[in-house]
Amino acid sequence: xxxxxxxxxxxxxxxxxxxxxxxxxxxxxxxxxxxxxxxxxxxxxxxxxxxxxxxxxxxxxxxxxxxxxxxxxxxxxxxxxxxxxxxxxxxxxxxxxxxxxxxxxxxxxxxxxxxxxxxxxxxxxxxxxxxxxxxxxxxxxxxxxxxxxxxxxxxxxxxxxxxxxxxxxxxxxxxxxxxxxxxxxxxxxxxxxxxxxxxxxxxxxxxxxxxxxxxxxxxxxxxxxxxxxxxxxxxxxxxxxxxxxxxxxxxxxxxxxxxxxxxxxxxxxxxxxxxxxxxxxxxxxxxxxxxxxxxxxxxxxxxxxxxxxxxxxxxxxxxxxxxxxxxxxxxxxxxxxxxxxxxxxxxxxxxxxxxxxxxxxxxxxxxxxxxxxxxxxxxxxxxxxxxxxxxxxxxxxxxxxxxxxxxxxxxxxxxxxxxxxxxxxxxxxxxxxxxxxxxxxxxxxxxxxxxxxxxxxxxxxxxxxxxxxxxxxxxxxxxxxxxxxxxxxxxxxxxxxxxxxxxxxxxxxxxxxxxxxxxxxxxxxxxxxxxxxxxxxxxxxxxxxxxxxxxxxxxxxxxxxxxxxxxxxxxxxxxxxxxxxxxxxxxxxxxxxxxxxxxxxxxxxxxxxxxxxxxxxxxxxxxxxxxxxxxxxxxxxxxxxxxxxxxxxxxxxxxxxxxx
Length: 660
Ligand SMILES: CCCCCCCCCCCCCC(=O)SCCNC(=O)CCNC(=O)[C@H](O)C(C)(C)COP(=O)(O)OP(=O)(O)OC[C@H]1O[C@@H](n2cnc3c(N)ncnc32)[C@H](O)[C@@H]1OP(=O)(O)O
Ligand SMILES: Cc1cc2nc3c(=O)[nH]c(=O)nc-3n(C[C@H](O)[C@H](O)[C@H](O)COP(=O)(O)OP(=O)(O)OC[C@H]3O[C@@H](n4cnc5c(N)ncnc54)[C@H](O)[C@@H]3O)c2cc1C
Prior knowledge:
Blueprint: H1 5-10, H2 15-23, H3 26-40, H4 55-75, H5 80-90, H6 95-110, H7 113-124, E1 130-133, E2 149-153, E3 158-162, E4 170-171, E5 182-191, E6 194-204, E7 217-221, E8 237-241, E9 244-247, E10 256-258, E11 264-266, H8 276-306, H9 325-360, H10 367-395, H11 407-414, H12 424-440, H13 457-462, H14 476-499, H15 504-510, H16 512-536, H17 544-562, H18 564-569, H19 575-592, H20 596-601, H21 607-610, H22 621-630, H23 643-659
Parallel strand pairs: 1-5, 2-5
Antiparallel strand pairs: 2-3, 3-9, 4-8, 5-6, 7-8, 10-11
Helix pairs in contact: 2-3, 3-5, 4-5, 6-7, 6-8, 8-9, 8-10, 9-10, 9-16, 9-17, 10-11, 10-12, 10-16, 12-14, 12-16, 14-16, 16-17, 17-19
The structure holds tetradecanoyl-COA and flavin-adenine dinucleotide.
GO molecular function: acyl-CoA oxidase activity; FAD binding; fatty acid binding
Subcellular location: Peroxisome
Keywords: FAD, Fatty acid metabolism, Flavoprotein, Lipid metabolism, Oxidoreductase, Peroxisome
C-alpha cells in the first residue's frame, strides 16, 4: 500500500524528467540508478544493524563490505565512474574513500609522469592502499606550520622522514590507522640545512607481506568519534616516524624537484599546486552536500506528509504537519537549497575540469578563482547542510531522534564536513582575501568569472532596488542585482575599513568577522546566479523548469529574508521591499506544497540508501516503527540482563522498608 499516493497525484510536473534534471543527464541518471539498485538488492550491504555494533565488529563489517564492493567492481568490470557511484550507495565511510578520493588524486596532481606511471597502476589495482597524511596533532589549518621533516641525505640519495615532536604526529588521516600500506605524507623539505616549504612524499608504512608497520614507523587508530556507527567505520589514524628513509624519487616532484646533488629546481608550476588535491576534494564535497541535504529533506518531507497533528474538530483526519506554514517555512528552503547545491556543484565541477585541463597545459591563471570558489562553496554548502540535517530532525519531532529515522547517523557522519578539508571559517577567510585583492586591483585589472560584478561596482553602489510589488520579486534581474549589490557594497565597505589600518594584516585580523560575512554574501550570490543560469538551459519535461523556477526563487528570497539586515544596512532595499519579498516567499511555499513529495521522489533514492523508516517511499511509517522497536536487542527478553543483580535488590529493599 502506498500511503503517499494521494500526495503523488497532486504534483503537476513530470517526475521522471525531473530525475534526469537532478542527475544532470540521462546517462548519469541511468548509471546512478543502476548502481543504487545493485547495492540496495545485495544483502551484504545491509546497514540497519550498524549503530548497534562495537568498534571492532563495525570496522570488520566495513572491510567485508569494501571487499564485496571491490569484487563487484572487478567481476562486473565497472568503470571508475560506476565504482564511485557504487561506493556512494554503499553509504559507509571506509578507507577506500581516501584511497580513491585523495591518495590517487594527490599523485595524479602532484606527481611527475614517471611517478604516475609507477604508482597509479599499483593504486588503481589496489595492490597498495594509500591515504592522505597532512594534518598533525598540533596543526591542521596552518599547513605551513606542519612539523614533520623530510631531510635530504645526499650521501644515500634518500629523504629521512622524522617526527621531531609529539605535536608533529600525523593525526586524523582517514584509512591511516589500520589499513593503509602507503601514504602521501606532507612534510617540511630540508635540504642542506635549509627549509624549502611543505611538500608531499610517498611513504610505505606497512609490509605488503604481513601488514605489520615497517621499522621506525608507529601507527594506530586515534579512537572513537562522535555518534554510534557513523564515521567510526573509518580508521582515522596517528603516525610517527623515527628517521625513516625513503628514496629521493618518492618526493612528489611536479612542483619542485630535488636533484641527486641536493639542488632544488622549481618548475613553472606555481607552489600552490601542492594544495591542488584540496581543491579537487572540496569540489566533490559540494556535490556531497547536495546529496546529504537532499537525503535529510526527503525523509523530513515524506514524514511531514504522513504525520498528522491537531486540526480535527469533527473526528475527521487531523492536519498533515506539512500543511502548517511554519513547517513549510523551515522545510521548503532546505528542499530548495538541496536543488541549489546540486546545480552549483554541477557548475563547480565544470569549472574544476576546465582548470584541471589548463593546469595540464601549464596555464595557471584561473587557479586563484578555482581555489576561492571551491573553498567558499565547500564552506557555505557544508555549513548549511549540517544545520539543515539537524533542522530536518526537528521537523520530524520525537521520531526524528530515533536512529531508525536515519537522521542521527546522517548528522553524525556529515558534521565533520564543516571541519575536514579545511575549517569552514578558515576557508571563508581565504575567499575574503581573494575578494579584498580583487577590490584593491579594480583600478587596473578587470575582474572576471564570479567576481565580474565587481567591475560594475560604481553602479551597484548607487542604484537601489526598483521592486514595487511582491510579484516584482519574480524577476531574475531584480533578484541577482539585489545579491550583487549586497556583496559589492559589503566588500567595498570592508575594503574602506581595511584601508584605515596601517598594517593590512593587522586590519585583516581585526575585521575578520566582517570579512567572513562579505565572503558568505559573495558565495550566496554565486549559488543564486548559477541556479538562474541553470534555468536558462534546455530542461525538458512537463512542468520541470517551472517547478525549478519556483525553487530557485524560494532559495533566493529565503536568503534575502534571512539576511535582510545586510540588504537593509547596505541601503539597497527599503523595509517595504524586504517585506514584499517575504510576502512573495509565502506565495511560493503554497506553490511548492502540492509538488513537495514529487520533488523529493525526483532524487530517486532507494529505501536502502535513505536508511530511514520515516522516509520510506510508501509512507508506511507506524507499523514499521513498531516492528523495528521489537528488533532492538533490549527486547530479546522481557526481563533484562542485570535486573536480578542490580535492580531487584533495590526493589526488595523498598518492599522490606515498606513493611517496616
Ligand atoms: C567520491 C570522492 C570522494 C571524496 C573523498 C573524500 C571524502 C571526504 C573524506 C574526508 C577527507 C578529509 C581529508 C582532509 O581533511 S585532508 C586535510 C585538509 N586540510 C586542509 O584543508 C587545511 C586547510 N588549510 C589550507 O588549505 C591552507 O593552509 C590555507 C589555505 C588556510 C593557508 O595557506 P597558506 O598558509 O599557504 O597561506 P596563504 O593564505 O598566504 O596562501 C598562500 C597562497 O596560496 C593560495 N592558496 C591557498 N590554498 C590554495 C589552494 N588550495 N589552491 C590554490 N591556491 C591556494 C592563497 O590564495 C595564496 O595565494 P596568493 O594570495 O599568494 O596569490
Ligand atoms: C572526520 C575527519 C576526517 C579527517 N580526515 C583527514 C585526512 O584524511 N587527512 C588529513 O590530513 N586530515 C584529515 N582531517 C583533519 C582536518 O583536515 C582538520 O581537522 C581541519 O583541516 C581543521 O584543522 P584543525 O583541526 O587544525 O582545526 P583548527 O585550525 O585548530 O581549528 C580550531 C578553531 O580555530 C579556528 N581557527 C583556526 N585558524 C584560524 C584563523 N586563521 N582565523 C580564525 N579562526 C581560526 C577555527 O575556525 C576553529 O574554530 C580530518 C578531520 C576530521 C574531523
